Amino acid sequence: MFAIDKRIAQQVWYPAPDVIPQLCFALEHVPDAQWNAHSDLYELADDIEPILKQHGARKWDFIWSMERHFSEPYGPLPKARQLFMAGIPDQFLAGHQPEKDLQVRVKPYQFEPRSALPEGYREWLEKLFFAHGECMLPVFGQEAVGKRSLYYTIDEFLVAIAPDAESRLRVNNFTSEEFKHQYQFYHVYSEFDPQIPHRIYQKETDVFHAYQDVQPKAEWVDRALFHMLADRYGVYQGFEWVQSSYAPLARVSLLVVKDERGHSNYGYLHVRDAIERSGGAIRRKLQARVDDFFYPMFMASFGSAQSKNNRMWREWGLKLHSNDQLRVAYHAEMQQVLDSLGLEAPDMNVALEKGLAKVARKVVPAAAEKVAL
Fold first, then answer.
1. 181/65 same-domain check
2. For the whole model, what pTM was predicted?
């Protein structure tokens, strides 16, 4: 018997931001006996491939969709093999063990909201909260009546310009999941200090207005490209906190890392669809945007190699890796992502220099600038 009931797979897929409805339709036509005749995901995929094709679905999409939701550490399937669609960053960070250039003062999961904190810890934890943000809503409950997320106009815009029903479904799922993140981090922040969500929201408001001046183009495919890179960046940032010394942050982060992988897939699927709709003609335009705008921005977003903040966060057990280690692992993953789309990853060092120069001139999105620490 297969470890995952096919009905569970459908129920988990449909509300996901990287849902492929054709996979859901196909599973309705896979006999239970055929599904449960397998214990290996890849053998199952080979067996049901004709049914997938009948419904316009791809075997590879079936495999990574199953692995993203049900492979270790999120389910009973073995660790994902489709790394850039379903894996977690430790598979790209495997050759980058935490550097031994400092002494970590605390242990993973050591502190809870009411714990006595050593001198200096609170300062660096708050600084991490403010650098991360994720507080587009400052309050929930009665105080939130009449308030909307800062990004609601962008969400509405994306629904309006989505090119087909499947894309529109994914936009709505993405928006819903982002709202869930707002609540999850609001809860983490307010347990630590009820005033922090309000203070972060004010900073996020300032960042948002600055971001509006230099955001991605108001085009469907440019937004998709942004999410493909930005949310993959978010996967790496979130994974840094999975063994955080602040236990509430560690607990929420493993869940959020899984979601952010789905958000990066959301962008990937829309970029792939755009390339296929254009017969490949759009690749040159996409490559130029990667080279000139997106790659420099995200290479710089990991921060400088000499970052004092990164060093102090690692000392306090709030991060694991240096900025350079994260940047190299992200670049290794992006090489696979872009190659699968017929695109190329720019030279990492050239992109980094270009991105840091733009940060200095204040011509990159503040959403990226604020984490270049």
1. no
2. 0.93
